[in-house]
Amino acid sequence: MLAIPLILCVWLIFEADWLVSLLLGDAYAGSVSVLKWLAGAMILNVLVQPMLTALQARRFDHFAAAISMASVGAQLAIVVTLAPTMGALSAGIAFFASQALQLLGVIACVAAILWRRNVSVISYLRD
């Protein structure tokens, strides 16, 4: 089921120019780059959200909350830093960065859980 949103996001990255022109007109051509960053971020989001949900379901909700809080803090810091010079594009970049941070956080959390249980990550993925 995750394939459909992934395909749509990849399609959106490549067709953002045409889509913005069709839906909003040429006056909004500057928003194409923001849309591309947001579509890229959603690719990461589609991968991250099931993993965060799995952490919560396995009673690691405190880790999921910490990962989410850190990513929101990073997103806000990036927007505050970049907005004066980059405008709306900073929001797209910040959202992408926050999703990348969530992905890294979830991967690190799962690796730490497996390490504490003396399970090799490689053997876990192989089985």
Which series of helices and strands comes N to C? HHHHH
Number of strands: 0
Largest sheet: none
Give the terminus-to-terminus CA distance.
22 Å
Helical element count? 5
Radius of gyration: 17 Å
Helix content: over 70%
* Number of structural domains: 1
In short:
By secondary structure, the chain is mostly helical. It is built from 5 helices and no strands. It has one domain (3-126).
Explain what the structure shows.
- There is one protein chain.
- This protein has 127 residues and is mainly alpha-helical.
- The protein has one domain.
- 85% of the residues lie in helices and 0% in strands.
- The protein contains five helices and no strands.
- It has helices at 3-24, 32-57, 61-86, 89-116, 121-126.
- α1 (3-24) runs antiparallel to α2 (32-57) and α2 (32-57) runs antiparallel to α3.
- The longest helix has 28 residues, at 89-116.
- The protein starts with a helix and ends with a helix.
